Structure formats: structure tokens, C-alpha cells
């Protein structure tokens, strides 16, 4: 199964903005509120990263992921994390040929453009580790044979950080593979009314039409990657990374890969705003969603990490002309 | 609580220099040294309180650190504080210092080690500062609560505590006992050798086709209960042992718990919990804050980094340059020697800044070699003939060589301060020796350099982040310049006020009186007068006739009074050239000659040349008519500014003369050297004055009855009757001779005119009669002659003295200045109780006993006031020029900044300024700044600025710029539209 993925080179830089606006409009019709999170999710998709959604059950994590998949044309699959889920359940396995002679690769649910991995932290460490390869390199290896997953490949994983019983905390390596982590938070009463009356929410999922084709997404990704990054802004990003490394409450600061992810996300933000260059506040925005899940704070407090990243951002003066 | 914390290394050198300056001031009596001392005292007071003020202005916002730390292992602290000047921080927990650091401004990261085991909720912050001078440290402390408690766990001990290891009974299938935490949750794993069959997770195994085991079963099969004991000698060690045991258990995969003295069992779920528990354990054992002990208030502590900064080193070298120049100039060296010394200092600065190991070891050798070379260049041993000259021709040169040599070793702050102290000492030496007009300017330069170097030494290394300041223009305000200027003005005023209490030095101590000859020009050796070139000087009129003034103009020798015979009708055409500078506490008549015999036209000096003493110290015997004065020693040092004849000037009555040549002591009281006195020579006279006052002279009554010594009652035969009649008329009704003298002076004042172009009396006429009654015009010789003859006709002994009177005073150098035209003749009247008392009907030199006791500050004030009064236009011009320079400098900086940053950069600065006024944080990005405005236009400007700064495809566009400027103009609140 190989997706034909050719970039639509006729796209102009401002088209990324158009794409993101149409995704946002589609999503707004589906998900009550959460414009910021939708924007981050869109940026994540455009930047070619994977998204981690952390929140308590019932706030629309899965709906957000499904909506994202539905508004981007392409195949969608869903994996539900359980403790006994095995790598072969996810990535596929070798099955006997119908003629009984030899084996052939039977792809698992990972072989889709958008994969929703629900409750990733319920999957045991072994299966989590099996995801590392596909998350980073876009292919799986079974029996020594690499099988590329369709491109573009976006994994949207969710985890519930409150109910910890029977879970396998995501290893640092796995967490590091996700470009951004968001949490959804509560909605306003008006938005909740919308959901309860069926004007928005899961009941609308069936009505969602793809607003962006795979070719457009590919072209968008190309444009995002081409967004210009000035050295001064890059240095600012490095200063922010260093600030997390030097912060007294941090045990493990942001890695260089975190920096790469942060810059990719910042580029996506810039392109979505119709700009051809990354501005410092793009980095600022990207840092708050790209770093907080990667920084390990003494005592293992995830919320503390967000505060630490905010502190680091406040401590580093933003560059200006 | 604020208290002194000590002085910086090397500060005592500056103090010692001040004391040495006092010694120099006492030895030389130089007002300039006293001015330096006063300035130094004011500076010292400032250095003393600067730290106090600085310490008081520190505001600590917050302190953050980790939640868990390990005793003795690295721990970082983050102190956010505002401090105006460099501050040294010390962070104390439970009485012990755990972290130290230094900061120039706000945020500081301190690194240290974890304190003693325990739970801490607050820390004590101590900070110390010495302000900008960096000499005297003050310390303050305050206690701050931490955001959360800091748990300090002990380091794991090598020997674990006793452990109860017990297998947990766990049957497969039963609900597993849930443990909190997430380190070892339930799960499955692949099969390992030795796994029990009943731990196989069959559903997973069937699905995957391989054996999958329940992880939990193996994992939690053991439970470690660590037994902690209270009441041990060392609770810290016990906690460390517990920690070791708990960690061992955790590592072994057991579920761990701890029990204190076999009581309640407390399960431990995670690694941080272990640390927390060990930090909490046995709170009784955590020692309370140790009792505050009294500490030595002046303990010297190294509060500052030892190494001198590069900038500081150059400041030290620069501060030494002016004093070196001052001393070398005073010693008469030329540009070549100065070049050698300056180059040696620069080389010393460069060498001392290089930290290579081999260079460090050979540095003293290089220094010694260079200093020897410099010394050899400077010292001319041949000139040294006595202890007094060694002070001038050996000591300063050695001092210069030493300063140069020390430069090679000057690489830390202590050495830097010592070098600056040496520079100050050189300045004081030069100020004590020099008497020229440029001294004031040099003192300003040297003092400024020294003050700058002291603050530069104290400055810590520059904050490297300062280089990346996003908006350099925001620092361009005059905020730092104005307080600095105000501080300098206050210091200058304080110095003047202090000086106003210091009297003019009463002359140098008599230990080392200056005396040297620039060149030895022998005279005839017969005690006769000699011209400056050594040739005999004969009849006054021939050399100094008014009509022939053109040839010898300005020369001191051209004055008729400096010859064996003085024609009263002749006066040399004397110029404005400074001929003599005299360091003395008060003005007096500097007498060179006396004349006793008058022939009606010419005064003739005694032919008796007196006795010759060899010197260099000459004890002067009493001359005719002298009386023993009071014990008051009136010390005068005479500095010849031009080539002078062999007259030795002195105030009456000289008692000691220091002159490096034989000296003729004449019976008439005049002194003549056996050599001429070329320019640059100096000699010192100690006189004993009888200090007469108007009252005491009046008390002497009418003197005509005494008439002694008789030699001074001689009258020429040509004296006319109307002169005698005038004398009798003026004496009538005067209760004392003193009043008669005043009456004569008053009559002269009223009836004759001072006129340098007075006509020459006809041949054969009595000059006095002609002057008094015919021409009624004359100059000092004629006026004095008239007065002397009038007094002699009354039987009062009187004579004519010639010499110099001071016309001017250099308040900085503290010397009286006499110019060629200040050559003067006056009358000396003999009072039995006071000896010869000078009276001058023409110039206004007060009686020795009535001279005002002035202060240096008062004199400076007067001089400054006089100068300012006379130079209003210059003063206004200087102020305007300074203002213009400041304005031009600012505009230049603005222009340069504008040029460097471009118009968009300036727009950016304005945008930042406006946003900060609206409450945005100054370090924020443009988008955040725009948010402060509550105006959609702001985001547009922010986006434009960002793309101008960071876009690759940016192209400048005038219309866009104009639009941005207009939009920003609307955003800027009123009153902030500056610096366009």
C-alpha cells in the first residue's frame, strides 16, 4: 500500500494560511471552542510532526483527532491502547499466503495517513518502543524488511495523565517523538450547550468533508519547511533551550531534537500567519507546546514543567531588530 | 542589619599614601599637596559610605531553587534582585553559607552545594557591596521564604540500614495489591529464564504466539522494610544508611517501606519520596540555627574576584601616566625620557596581562631589567652632593623606576590598588616640588585618572549578556552622566569646604629645605655684586638707565637697585616676566640690598662685604640694628625663574640660609652668594620676624631721642631747608614716630604722584627736594628716598632697601610670584624694640605682624571668584562649549546608532519605548509588545518590524515606512515623542 504523494507546487506561501483557515473553520464546526488547540494541532500536521493530547476523559480528545483526520483527506485508522497490545497488533505481522506457500506482510492499523492512538500510555513498554521507528522514520521493519507507512503520516496520540493505574508512563524517548503536546481544558458553558444540543460535537463528525487534499498537505509541508529562519531567531530558540537546561528545578532540559521540533512548529505557525519568515513570538508560542512535555522537572510534576517553560521564556529577552 | 564587612585588598595602600601625603605636606608646606589631601579625604569618605548606600538600595524579589537536593552536592539557586552597583551574594541555610556569587545587575544564578540534611522553608541572603569605589565593604542580610520547602537528603551511605526482607504472598488471579506511583505498574513482559509457570499471561501468549509473563508477580514479590533508628549519635548518617537501604530495595525491584524504631510502617513509592523521607527523618536532629557569634567587624575578606580585568589594568597604567609626567617635568627631563618611561609602563601593562606560565616566572626579571634601564636613564648621580639634593636627584628617579617595575607584577586587584597608591604618591611628590602654572591642570588630570582607575579596578567583569542588549538606545539616557556630574560637583564643593578650615601651611619643616643650583657660575669671589653671568656688576645707572631700557629689558639685573650704587632718578624698563617664585605662608618684602649713604642723588651701599661662610647651611649672624625676633620661623623658599645676580633675597631678618654655595654675610644685613643664581635654582631662608603691629610700634613712642645706629642718620649736604621744615611740620603733633611715618605716607599720597616717566632732576639739584617740591612726580626709589631723608632729618634711623615684592599668588602651588617690574625700593626704619621695620609708601605690603591668617580654601575661593569675575565670558563660553560638546556627542551617538540600526531600527526603538510606557515588559517580543496597546494597528507594526528584522525577502519601502511611522505616532502616548 503506497500512497501517491506528490506535492502540489502551484501553492503560494499564503495558501498555507488559507489551508489552515479552512481546517480551523471545519474544526470549529465540529469541536466546541479550543481554537488555540486546533491551531496547534493544525500546525503540528503542517510541520510534519505527531501530536500528543493529554487530558482527562470526556473533553473531546478523540473527537479532535478524528476531526483532524476527517478534514485532511486520506486514510484514517484508530488503535486503542491496552496493556496487552503487542507490536505486531499495531505495525502488522507476517501471515501465510493464501496458497499456503510462504508468508506475506499483513499491515497493521499504523498504515494510514492519520492514525489515532488512543490512550497510548496503556500500551506496554514493548509496544511503545515499537512505535519509535515509525514515529521517527516513517516505516516499520518486520522480519528485517522495512515497510514504509503511507505519507503523510500523522499520529495523534492521547493519554490520560490522571488515571495512572495500569498504565505505562511514556518513556522519554517516546515522548520526545511527539512534536507538540496539548491539553484541552474545560469549555465555556455556551460551548457546552452547543455540544449537548448536538449543534457541535461527535454527532457532526459524519458531516465533515475533507477540506485539504493530501497533495495540498504535502505542498503545505514543503512551504512550511521553506519558511525562512533568521539566525537571530535561531539563537533565541537556542537561548530558550539553554534556559530550560539551566533552570534550577529542571532535572533534564530540552534536547536538541526538542529544539528542532520547536523550530518546525514555529515555522508552521509563521506560515499559517501568512508570513515567509519566523518571528520570535512564533518561537515563543512553539516553545510552550513543544517543550513542556519534554522537560523533566524535579519531582516529576508535568504541570510544573509548563510553568518552568513559561519562566524560561520570560527569562530570555526576545530578539528585535 | 547593616554592618561593615571589611576593606578591599590594597585599600590600605591608598590610606598609607594619604598619610605619606601628610608627611610631604609637612615637609614642603605646599598648598597643592594640602589640596590633594583634602580631595583624598573627601574621596575616602565617599569610599566609606558608597558601599553602605549601595547595600541599602538592593531589593530582592525572589529566590528559587530545586525542591529536592542532596547534602554536599551541586545545587543551583536563582536570585532575582535589583541592585544599583556590583553586589556580592552569599546564600545561607541554617547558618552555613551554601552558595556565593557576584552580580552586576538583576538576575543572578548562584551555584553551591546542598546544605546539611533537613527540610528548609526559608533561606538567609547576605549581600555585600563596596559601591563604585570598591574599597570599603558593607554587608546586609535578609531572610526569604522559599516557594516550596527544600528537602535536603543525605548522600547514600556505604552501609545500608537494617532491612526486613519478606516475600509478599501473592496468588495468581487474585486482585493485585495496588501500589501508588507509576514506577512499577502492573503489566506484562516477555518470558525470562526462571519464570514461574503460574505467572504466564495466557491471553497475550496465545495471541502473540510467544510466552508473555505477568510482570507484577516477579516485581513485587519482595517487600523491604527498612528499620530506621532514632537516638543514634549521628542522625545524618542514620538517614544516609536508610537512604542507601531504600535505594537498594528500589533498585532490586522490591516494594519498599520504612519503619522508625519498629513502629508504624510507612511505604515509600518513588525515588523522590526516598529523598523526601530521608530529609524529614528525625526532625529533632536538625540542628537549630547556630547562635549568632560576634564577628570581627573589620575582617578583610576577598569579596571580589582577585584577577584584575583588562580594562582595569589599562586604567591603572593610564592613572600612572600623568603623575609620572608631572614628576619627570618637575625634574627637568625632556620628551625622550618621558617617552622611555611611558613606553616602559605600557610594556609592563601588556606583560602583566599575559598569564602564560613561563612569563609569570620571568616577569620579575623583566621588570627589574626595565626598571634598571629606566633608572639609569633618569638618575644622574653626579648631581647628588648632599642629603637634601638626594631628595631631588635620587629619590624621585628611584620611585619612578620602582613604579615601572611594579607595573610588571601588577595583575591582581590588590597590586592594582597599590600601583594607584604609588601614582598618588608620585602626584603628591610632584605637587610638593612643582611651583609652575600648569600644576593645577596636572593635578586635575592626575586626580581624575586616579579616581577613575580606582572605580575601574573595583568593577567586576562585564556582564557578557550586555553585548546582546536588543535596544542599545534605551541605555543612552543621561541617567548615569547626571548623577556622576552631580557627585563630582558635590565632591569638589566638599573639598573646598574642607580646605576652608585648613590654614595656609606655615612653611615647610626645617628637616629638608630645598636648595640646589642649576648651574655653578662663579663670581669674582670678592663679595662684590655679580651679574647673572658672573661678571662684576658696577654702577647701577650705567646698566639700568631708563633711556637705555631697550637692551636689557626684562632682565632682573637691569634694575638700578641691584647694584652698589642706586641713582634715584633712574629706573630700568622692567618687563612682566616672572623672575622669582617664593613659597612662603604670607607675603613679605624679599630684600636683596640695603643702602645707607645718600649723596643727594645716589644711594651707596656699604663697601664692607662682611664675612664668608661656606654652607650649604649658613647661620646668619646679627647685622647692625637687628634685634632678636620672636621664635616664629618664617620659612621662604626662593625659586629663581630667570637668571639672577648673586643677590640672596630674604625677608627680614634672616637667621638661616640653605644655599649650596659660599655666602657673604654683609654687616648691613644683605646677603650675597659667591655664585650667580641661574634659572631653576632654589634656596631657602629661615627668617625670624619681630612681627610688629601698629599698636606695638606706636608704643615705641618718638624715636628722635635715640638716634641709633648713627650711620643711618647721615644726611647729604644738599638737603634743603624746606625738606627739614616739611619733616618738622609732619612730626609736629604726632604722638609717636609711627604716627609720623603714617603722616609722611599720607602727605606723599596727597601731594605727589606715582609716575614711571618722572623727569630727571637738573644736574646739581638735590633729588629729594626736586621730587617733593618741584616735579611732585616720581616712582618708588624717589618716594622712598624722600621718606628716608625726611625721617633722617628728624633723627630717626632709616635706610633704603631694594628687592622684590610679591604681586600675585598661585593658590594651587602656594607660591608668591614676583615679576621683573615688581623690583622695588622701600624704607626700613629702625625701631629699638623691633629692629628694622619695612615701610612702603608706594606698595601695600602689610606689616609682618598684621598679615591675615588665611585658609587654603578661602584663598582658592577668592582666586576662583576673582578669576570667574574677570572671565565671565570665558566661563559662559566654557559652559556653553561643554553643553555643546555633550549635545554633539549625544547627537553623534544617536546618529551613529541610527546609521547602524537603520530607520527601521529606530522605529523599533520607538515602538519598544511606547510599549514599555503602556506596561509591556521591555524584553518581550514585538507581538507581546503590540498586545500592550490594545490597538490592532500595533500588531501590524509589530509584524512589519519583525519582517524587517527577520525576513529574507524583506525590501525596504518608503510608503510602508511612512505608514508605519504614522501608525506608531498614533499609538505613542503624548509626551513620549522624543528622539525622533
Low-confidence stretches of chain A: 1-7
Broad shape of chain B: elongated
Backbone structural class of chain B: alpha+beta
Q: How many alpha or pi helices of chain B?
A: 25
The level of helicity of chain B is: 25-40%
Secondary-structure content class of chain A: alpha/beta
SSE string of chain A, helices as H and strands as E = HHEHEHEEEHEEEHEHHHEHHEH
Which value, in Å, is the CA radius of gyration of chain A?
A: 20 Å
Mean pLDDT of chain A: 84
Strand content of chain A: 5-15%
Secondary structure: helix percent of chain A: 40-55%
Rounded average pLDDT of chain B:
78
Name the chain pair whose interface involves the most residues: A-B, 41 and 55 residues
**Largest pleated sheet of chain B:** 9 strands, mixed
In the sheet with the most strands of chain A, the strands line up as: 2-5-8-1-9
The biggest beta sheet of chain A reads: 5 strands, parallel
Distance between the termini of chain A: 50 Å
Using brief descriptors, characterize the structure shown.
heterodimer; A: 321 residues; alpha/beta; two-stranded antiparallel sheet; disordered N terminus; B: 980 residues; alpha+beta; seven-stranded antiparallel β-sheet; 25 helices; 39% helix; 20% strand; elongated; disordered C terminus
Secondary structure elements and their pairing?
The complex is a heterodimer of chains A (321) and B (980).
Chain A: H1 13-30, H2 35-46, E1 51-54, H3 61-71, E2 76-80, H4 87-91, E3 92-96, E4 103-107, E5 114-118, H5 125-137, E6 139-142, E7 145-148, E8 154-159, H6 172-177, E9 180-182, H7 189-197, H8 214-226, H9 231-246, E10 250-252, H10 256-272, H11 280-290, E11 296-297, H12 302-315
Helix pairs in contact in A: 1-2, 1-3, 1-8, 2-10, 8-10, 9-10, 9-11, 9-12, 10-11, 11-12
Chain B: E1 2-7, H1 11-28, H2 31-56, E2 59-65, E3 68-70, E4 74-82, E5 87-93, E6 96-103, E7 107-113, E8 118-129, E9 136-153, E10 163-167, E11 188-190, H3 202-208, E12 212-214, H4 215-219, E13 222-228, H5 235-251, E14 255-260, E15 265-268, H6 271-280, H7 310-330, H8 335-353, H9 357-378, H10 387-393, H11 395-409, H12 413-433, H13 439-458, H14 481-499, E16 521-522, H15 540-544, E17 565-567, E18 578-583, E19 590-595, E20 597-598, E21 602-604, E22 611-613, E23 617-619, E24 633-640, E25 647-648, E26 654-658, E27 663-665, E28 671-673, E29 675-676, E30 682-688, H16 694-698, H17 721-731, H18 737-751, E31 753-754, H19 767-775, E32 777-778, H20 780-793, E33 798-804, E34 808-810, E35 815-819, E36 823-831, E37 835-839, H21 856-870, H22 872-917, H23 926-931, H24 936-950, H25 958-971
Parallel strand pairs in B: 3-9, 13-14, 31-32
Antiparallel strand pairs in B: 1-9, 2-4, 4-7, 5-6, 5-8, 6-7, 8-9, 10-13, 11-12, 14-15, 16-29, 17-21, 18-24, 18-35, 19-33, 20-21, 22-27, 23-26, 24-30, 25-28, 26-30, 27-28, 33-36, 34-35, 36-37
